[in-house]
Amino acid sequence: MLGVSKAFPGVRALERVDFRVEAGEVHALLGENGAGKSTLIKIMTGALRGDEGEIRIDGRPVEIGAPGEARALGIGTVYQEVNLIPTMSVTKNLTLGRQPRRFGLIAWRAARNRARERLKRLNIDIDVERPLGSYSVAIQQLVAIARALEEDTRVLVLDEPTASLDANETELLFRIMRDFKLRGIAMVFITHFIDQVYQIADRISVLRNGRLVGSAATADLPPLKLISLMLGRELERTEERVAAAAPAARGQPILLAEGVGRRRLMEPFDLSIRAGEVVGLAGLLGSGRTEVAKLIFGAVRSDSGRLSVGGVPVTSRSPGRSLRLGMAFCPEDRKAEGLFGELTVRENIVLGLQTKRGWLRRLSHDEQEELAQKMIKALGIATPDADKPVGQLSGGNQQKVVLARALVSDPRILILDEPTRGIDVGAHADVVALIRSLCAQGLALLVASSELDELVAVSDRIAVLRDRRKIGEIAEREITRENVIRTIAGAKA
Amino acid sequence: MWPLIALAVILAVDGFISPGFFHVRVVEGRLFGNVIDILYRAMPTALVALGMAIVIGTKGIDLSVGSVIAIVGAVITWRIHAGDPHFVILLIALGVGILCGLWNGFLVAVLDIQPIIATLILMVSGRGIGLMINLLYGGTNPSFTSPLLQGLSVGHIGLIPTRLILGAAIFGALWLLIRRTALGLFLESVGGNSAAADLAGINARLIKFAAYLICALCAAWAGVVLAADTHTSDPVSVGLYIELDAILAVVIGGGSLAGGRIYLGMTVLGALVIQALTTSILTSGLPPEYNLVVKAVVVIIVLLLQSENLRNALYARLGGRKR
Fold it and tell me: CA of A334 to nearest chain B CA: how many angstroms apart?
C-alpha cells in the first residue's frame, strides 16, 4: 500500500501511509486506538476506499472496492471479535456463503468434509457438527482463521487475534503462524502485546495519529525504541514542561485510593491526588489506564480497597454518587459512552449539572441557555446555536461538549480519559489552556492519555501502568519522556 | 408537523365528502357532532399513547396496556358489586394500574428482560386475570351502574364533555412531570444512550421503572373511562388491539421506536389522526370492511412522509435543488 490517505468528517484517519508486507513474513502493525490501524485494514480488505494512494499486489496496482474483491485477490481477514455464529455448527460456519452444492441443494456431506480438511491444515481435529459456541474462544479463533484461509490466500490479516487467548493458546496460534510462513503466506499481525510482537513478528510498523512513524525489521527495533515510537508524538514544537505551583502549598490529598482493584480487570493500586494537582496515567494500550479512571469514578465497581474523597471514606460507589461528591468524568469513547447524539448541545451540557441536582429541581430553560452559552464560549465550541443535535458536530467539538458537561457541575476532581483524542491542534490548545486555568483555581485532575508528551508537559506526577498493574510513579523533576518509557520497558527487558 | 398536516388533510377531505361534517350542535346542554365524536373516542387511545410514548422514549415498549385496561375494568365491576364507595373504587383502579406498572418495571429494569418479552407476559395473562376477577362475584360480563363513572363517560361540565377535561388534565399532569422536571431529559437520555446515561450519573434502572409505572397508570385511566363507557366488565374484548393504535399514534407523532425523544403533544395528535380516519371512513359511506385497510394505507403514507430518506430522495428527484 503506497501513500494511502483517508479522511472522515472532522478527522484525518490516515495521512499518506505506506505499508509493505512480503510473502512468508509476519508484519506487526502497532498503534494506539484512533491511530488509524483499523482504517488501514479496512482499506486493505475492501471495507473502505482510500481517498488517495494505491494498493499493489505482486507489484501490480489493484482496486479493492468491496470485501468480496479483497477475498478474490487473496486477502483474508480474521477479526478481533470472532465474527462467526456461535449457535451454528462448525461446518456451517466454515462453509457459510460458499456451501458446496449439488442440484441446487446444499451437499452437507461435502461441506463437512471440506470443513474437516480446512481444519486439518491447522492441525485441528474436532467434531465439526457441534455448535461453534461450545468450543473455547481459542478454538473459535482458529476456526475463524481456517475460514479466512482459502486455497489461494496470499495475505492473512489478523486483527488482535490473541486478545482473548491465554499463553498456551497463543503459542498454538504462533505455531500455526510459523507454519503459514513456510507456506509463503504474508501475515499482517495487529496487536498491542509488545512481548508477542517480539516472539513472532519479522517486521514492525507503528502508526500514530494517522501517520506511519516507523517501520523496521524486528531485529533493528529494540523495545525501548519501539515504545518511544508508540508514545511519542510528532512535535511541531516542543511542549515545555510547565512547572505547576509550589507543591508544598497543596496539603492533604483530596482523593485517596488504597488498594483499589477489581479481579481480572486491574490489580489493586494506590493513588492519591491533591487539590490543584495534575496526576497523569501513562502506559501502553491495555495497561489499564481506562480501568483506573473508571474504578476511581465508580463506573466500575471495585472488589477491593478503600476510597476516600476529601478525607471522607466513600462506601457505595456509583457514577451518581461520585458526581455528588464533586467528581466528574470524561470517557474515552465519546460516541458510545459520552454523548447523546439525538439530544441538543445544550441538553448534553446541562445534563452534567442536572444529574447532580436530581430530577425534581429542573434547571429552567433560561438557566440552561446561560450555562450552555457560558461553556460554549469558555471552550470555544464551534456551533451556530446550542439547539443543534450534538451528533452533527465535528469530532473535536463533540469532545469539547463532553468536557463541558463534566465542568458544568463545578467538580473538584476531574477525571479525563484521552481528552485530546481525535481533536485538531486548535481545539487541543483551547482545552489544555482551560484545564490549566482550572487547576490554578484548585481543581484536582487525573488524566489518562496515550499522548505521553502531553502528560509529561502538564503533569505534576505520573503514575505508570503496565499490563493492568501500577508499576511506579514519577514525580516533579523526574518527569521526562525517557523516564516514563524506561519505567514501562524496565519491568520487562 | 406532519401529524398536524395529516389531520388537516383528513378533515378537509371529510368536509368535502360529507358537507355538514363539521356541524356542531348543542343537545341537552352538551356538544354534539362528528368533530366532538372524534375527540370523544380518541381520548382513551390518546391516554394509552401518552404512556406508550414515554416508554418508547426509553427504548422500551409496553404491549400489556390492553390487558391492564381489562384488569382495571374487572376490578371496578368487582368492587362496585362489593359495595365500596365509588370514589374509593377509582383509587383502587389506579392502584391496580400501579401494581401492573411495578410488575412490568421489575421485569424490565431489575431483571433486564427485553421489554417486548417482559410486557408480553402481562399482555397474555392479563385478560385471563380479568376473567378470574369476574368469577369472584360469580358473573360473566356483569354490568353495573355508577353515577360517578357515568359522569366521567358521558357527563359534561358546562358545554364540554367531562372526559375531555379529564384527558386534558392528565395530559397537563404528564406534561408537568415530563417537561417541568428533569424526568423528561433523563428518560430521553436513557433511551438515547444507556451506557452514557449510566456514566452521566443517571440511575437508568429507576428511570426505566418510572416509565413503565407511568405507562400502566395511563392505561389504568383509559381502563376507567372504557369501563364507564360500557358499564360492564368485558376482559376479553375491551381495549382490544389498543396497544397497536397507541404505538401507531406515537410513531405518527414523530417518536422513533429506537427511543430517544418523547413528543407528548404530537402523540395526542397522532391518536386524533387515527380516530379521525376511523370516523371519516364511517361517515363517508364506505363499507365498514374498508376501515382497517384504508387506515393502514393512510398510516403508511404518513410514515413515509416522515422518513427523511424518502424526503431526500423525493427532493433530489423533483429538482436536485437544496437538501
Answer: 9
Rounded to whole angstroms, the Cα distance separating B136 from B77 reads 10
Q: Do A351 and B200 touch (CB under 8 A)?
A: yes
| DSSP code at position B140 | S
B172 vs B193: CA distance, rounded Å: 28
Give whole-number Cα distances, B175 to A402, B165, B170, B205, B263, in Å: 29, 15, 8, 22, 10
* Whether domain B2-285 has CATH 1.10.3470: yes
pLDDT in tens, B74-118: 999 988 888 888 889 999 999 999 999 999 999 999 999 999 999
Arithmetic mean of pLDDT over chain B: 86
Residues of chain B positioned with their CB less than 8 A from the CB of A339: 193, 196
> Which residues in B have their CB inside 8 Å of a CB on A?
180-183, 185-186, 188-189, 192-193, 195-203, 260-261
Q: What are phi and psi of A327, to 5 degrees?
A: -100, 155
Domain boundaries, chain B: 2-285
Whether residue B87 contacts residue B205, with contact meaning beta carbons closer than 8 Å, is answered with no
In whole angstroms, what separates CA B278 from the centre of its chain? 16
Which residues on adjacent β-strands are paired with residue A389? A344
Interface confidence (ipTM) of the complex:
0.82
Kindly report the CA angle at A105 between A101 and A106, in degrees rounded to 5? 55
- Among B256, B239, B242, B250, which residue's Cα sits nearest to residue B299? B250
pTM exceeds 0.80, yes or no: no
- Nearest-Cα distance to chain B for A164, in Å, is 23
Count of pairs with CB atoms under 8 A, one residue in A, one in B? 76
Q: Tell me, rounded to whole angstroms, the distance of Cα A138 from its chain centroid.
A: 22
State the greatest distance between any 2 C-alpha atoms of chain B, in Å, as a whole number: 70
